Model the fold of this input.
Amino acid sequence: MLSKNQIAVVEYSIYLKDTGELVDTTSEVEAKLNRKYVEGGIYEPEVVVIGERRFFQGFEEALTSCKEGEEVEVEVPPEKAFGPRDPSKIRTFPRRLFEKQGVKLEVGKEVRINGELGRILAIEGGRVVVDFNHPLAGKTLKLKLKVIKIVSDPAEAVRYLVKRRLRGVKPEDIVVRVDPVSGQATVEVPKRFRLSSEIQYLKSLAAYDILKYVEGINEVVFVDRFTRDEVEGEK
Done:
């Protein structure tokens, strides 16, 4: 059983119950089998912190009942997924509103109006009908989950929380040292991430996660290591 703030490494696939259509998956094989594969997409187990609420309620409830290595399959009703469909969230706007903004009108296209994201449901002459419900609102989902690992060691927890922010990196490529006396965690990430325009922001997010969820860690230090071999290798 998993409890609040525990960290788990999870594989999952989510389907629509009625049609069997794949909605989301961490498995490249499953994506290809269901013709949902995205070239260049990253398919890998997800690092989940229990109680963080990054996933819908039914997902977390199913996860908390899992043991390491266990695979479960559950149905999730709309009330514990993305909620029921709300007719009041379907609204009509004048076509000229979109034309002024240079928006090309297409049924199914996502549009943002007054900061709210919706999808064009219909185009009727001078009117455009927009649905602000979540695309999965009102849908019962079928969820397949497998807990690959339950992370308890502090250094390993730091490693996986950093890995969660740096998509595509292998956990073993992240070097972590934890001083149990001072509570300082020192982290080195692979060299290829140095040139990422978002690396400082991602480090900040990872540090926040570590300080919030890993007991005993009081400070996070990221180290950028440069060696003479790198310079000489460019000659």
In short: The chain has three domains: 1-84+137-152, 87-131, 153-235. Residues 153-235 form a domain with the Alpha-Beta Plaits fold (CATH 3.30.70.2210). Helices lie at 28-33, 57-64, 95-100, 154-165, 199-213, 228-233.
